[in-house]
Amino acid sequence: MGKIRLTGGENKRQSLRIPKGIRPTRAIVKRSMFDTLRDFVVNADVLEIFAGSGAVGFEALSRGASSCVFIEKSREGMLTIIENAKKLGVLDRIRVIKADFVRGLNDLIREQKKFDLIFADPPYDFLNHDELFKRIVSLLKSGGLYLVEVRNKTQLPEIWENLSKVKEVNFGQTKVVYYRMLSGDL
């Protein structure tokens, strides 16, 4: 069981538990993402997919997000997210869905949930990006952002329906790709 620290906001430097076998988003990557997002995260409704420990969602909450939904399929990950939320005093601002990404996202679509900001950090060998994109477009508010952390060699589309790639930042073998949900038809 490892630990990482939040990099900013009201819970800056607070440590989070990391379940064994989880590859958390590195601090430099989180800091870069949130330096880019700045005030966009304030009062945002956030979704973190492949949440692991919930580190990115908790970073968003620390920096002013209203709420965060975490989708995590492992029981250990789910319990770690709840434990981290209790430690940070944000249990009332989170929801944890214990499910694989397809079932979790489909449940949110059925509930007609919409998010300002969606993060995904799938395993490096993940090949179902089309399945992710297909669901993200139903969950992201107009003007909302989708950030996905992938292996540097992973090729993602420039445009997927109303999602348009706006930025890509490389961190060695990892990159974060930013998409914005455009309003109306393309």
What does this structure look like?
It is a single chain. The chain has 186 residues and is α/β, with parallel strands linked by helices. The protein has five helices and ten strands; from the N terminus they run ββαβαβαβαβαββββ. The strands form two sheets. It has an eight-stranded mixed β-sheet with strand order 5-4-3-6-7-10-9-8, with helices on both faces. The radius of gyration is 15 Å and the shape is globular. The mean pLDDT is 92.
How would you write the strand order of the largest sheet? 5-4-3-6-7-10-9-8
CATH superfamily: Vaccinia Virus protein VP39
Strand content: 25-35%
Q: What's the structural domain tally?
A: 1
Q: Report the average pLDDT across residues.
A: 92
Low-confidence stretches: none
Question: Main β-sheet: number of strands, strand sense, barrel status?
Answer: 8 strands, mixed
CATH topology: Rossmann fold
**Number of helices in the DSSP assignment:** 5
User: Which CATH top level class fits?
Assistant: Alpha Beta
How far apart the termini lie comes to 46 Å
**Global geometry:** globular
**Rg over C-alpha atoms, rounded to the nearest angstrom:** 15 Å
Helix content: 25-40%
Q: Which structural class do the helices and strands define?
A: alpha/beta
Total number of strands: 10
Q: Under the CATH scheme, which architecture would be assigned?
A: 3-Layer(aba) Sandwich
Order of helices and strands: EEHEHEHEHEHEEEE
Enzyme class: transferase
EC number: 2.1.1.171
Protein name: 16S rRNA (Guanine(966)-N(2))-methyltransferase RsmD
Keywords: Methyltransferase, Transferase
